[in-house]
Amino acid sequence: MDETTVRDLEAAAFRRLVSHLRSRQDVQNIDLMIQAGFCRNCLADWLSEAAQDAGVSLDREGARAHVYGEPYADWKARQPEATPEQIAAFKATQTSHS
After folding, report:
1. 3-class SS at 75?
2. 41 vs 5, 33, 57, 61, 93, CA distance in Å?
3. For a tag on the chain, would you pick the N or C end, based on fewer CB atoms within 10 A?
4. Is the pTM higher than 0.85?
5. What number of CA atoms fall less than 13 Å from residue 70's CA on the CB side?
6. CB 52, CB 24: distance < 8 Å
7. What is the mean pLDDT of residues 56-81?
């Protein structure tokens, strides 16, 4: 495959991932971190870094708004606090990767 096709396919996969995550607001970021080692905020950070590398102005909050489909503060306000069990599971993943 040529570079343009690869880029277009990767962009389509990214858009589908973002759409999927927007539709699954029941899945908390901490659950994603426990299971996959990344969350929506990580994805937004990667988007912001890619924009910076390309010379495009997109700060962290703008990238988060893109990934979440709304201001991050609005999304976060609807999310429950992480449970002690979730926090313990997350911490366990951190020590197992050290």
Report:
1. helix
2. 27, 10, 18, 10, 18
3. C
4. yes
5. 10
6. no
7. 96
